[in-house]
Fold each of these.
Amino acid sequence: MKAPAKRSRRAAWLLAAAFIAGSALAASIGDSRGDGWSRAELSILASMRLGAVNLASLDPSNAYESSPAASRLGQRIFSDTRFSGNGAVSCASCHQPDKQFQDGRPLGQGIGTGKRRTMPIAGASRSPFLMWDGRKDSLWSQALGPFEDAAEHGGNRLAYAHLVDAHYRKDYEAVFGQMPDLSRLPWNASPVGTPEQQVAWNALSASEQRDVSRVFANMGKALAAYEKSLQHGESRLDRYLGALADGDPGASSQLSAREKNGLRIFIGKGSCVTCHTGPLFTDQAFHNTGIAPRVAGQPDLGRRAGIAKLRADEFNCLGQFSDAKPDQCTELNFLADDEAAATAAFKTPSLRDVARRAPYMHAGQLASLDEVMRHYRRAPRSAAGHSELKPVRLSESEVADVVAFLGTLNQISQQ
């Protein structure tokens, strides 16, 4: 339902690998063509199967992402409400384990109310850019943003370093080495906090600022090590596709007729697969789909503003706290910043478990998947920039079939 857009290099490689794997799998199915699928359709379907291609990848900017000790530390920090300005908000407050690591709210709710929907973090380690506007280029950098955001955790960098020193020193030093001496430093200071916190931050020496920011960055790297373990599980669609690949005569019974028709529309006349593609059902790109701003007359510039924030981020791949060599920061070095294409463009979210994640869109503007489908069918003009959508002629019955298909992407173990 969307037009193709420029994809990141990593995302393009992953999608190409998925389609190569899909073509090979389709060929192995032979001429059985279960449920009437053509060979071309089978190739697309096989590329959508979880496990069709090895999506594991290492983040060169985080040398600790594969460390079990870092993961254990990150998991503890993830649920610790002391890492907030009011002592009541943790990462798990918005990324709730029983809700696919999101919160089910139109807007994120921390110390205050955010401006966008909480994104789920399962499978996020496979994304080259994080957040709805892509303003972060690694999972560890993304984890840091909410801590200093006034509406989310609402805390400050030096206070967090003191908390790590007081409650996690042994675990921290087991992973990252000796903790710096913070005993002579004030409790509250941050380069992006309140005016008082910024004054206190500027009073620190350059080496003290660097030490504090290093501890803060390592918090993010520990969190990323934990969050990398949060991956999607098998769905009914995966079982159906696996049965097709195995030539199982019972494959057809895995999905209902309505679900299979919805899948046929999804990869066919609906063109949904143009952007919701591959095993994660996302091209990892950014698109303007004409979704109305939450507040009329106040359009969100999305990716256009996100690119500027990404380039200025001290915790990006090229920053001093990154473990990557400059030539390893491919995505950032070759970042496209076409303002026209980026205006009011938002990241394509994964559709895995999507039926459990209402409301929808970047600010929860649409309450149900039926509303989402009708939005794509209408293809309204965008309040800012230019929408990529073209109207799609789908009947009410076909809309219902696609919605039914999307339910097959729910993880089985949680049903």
Amino acid sequence: MTLALIAILGGFALLIWSADRFVDGAAATAKHLGMPSLLIGMVVVGFGTSAPEMVVSAMASLDGNPDLALGNAIGSNIVNIGLILGITALISPISVHSNIVRKELPLLTLIGGLVGFILLDGALTRFESLLLLTGFIGLVSWTIFVALRTRGDNLETETDQLLLAQAMPIQKALFWLVVGLVALIISSRILVWGAVTVAHSLGVSDLIIGLTIVAFGTSLPELAASVIAARRGEHDIAIGNVVGSNMFNLLAVIGIAGVIKPMGSFPADIVHRDWATMMLMTVGLLVMTFGFRKTGQLNRIKGCVLLFFFVAYNTYLLLDVMAK
């Protein structure tokens, strides 16, 4: 039990460190290969902040713990909206004025509805998982297309040249890219082993551990990115990071886990309790941030509301575990 707790804490620490090194290496490598800065921000960093969820869920499925993988994906979305955006809004209210974000939030809601429809029968087949992965590939492809089409050539060239001059050498970038990826896999295995061991020792299900402890740990990169972006006045990045990560979680994290290990059955609570909570918070975020006549804003009051729902949900999970 003690060793498992140490594994969870050590796994979290290594996970965050490796994700940071992976993003740095990937971004610098992409810059040396000529990718525009806008594309790096939307795709490479988006991948980086969602990498912990992807790798942890993949490792959990390989280890025969699909409930933990599914709980990690849905739980991370709840953490991202309730805890991360709630804390970020309390620190620095977020103005939402980007047309891209206002388009992505309705899209996130539609993707959430699709995932709920797929999970409604209490199973996740490999075909359904492949559909989710296809949607993920389509989403990334469309993002790349829009980024390349809408960038300003002259400004982008000057910006790219400046960033390339500041980027780490290609050899160092490739080194951290590989080291970060390897460390991500190792830390994910340590974290999953520790979480599953603790869950079994306490008689708690893999699903609950995935929804809470693992979901919080894998969402730490999003927390850091959103808080830093909000404090710097990059409001669209702060909320766009969470919206993009949640899309990745629903399409890629669940898709990868289901392709590795199709789920013949899982607890009905995943749909009736966890998915429903995620959708309630997603729709709530859409309503809170959509400016019907002016710029939408996620102020401190709305941040408190999001935090309240997050705390209420986790309190319910705790009481449910204690009752059993």
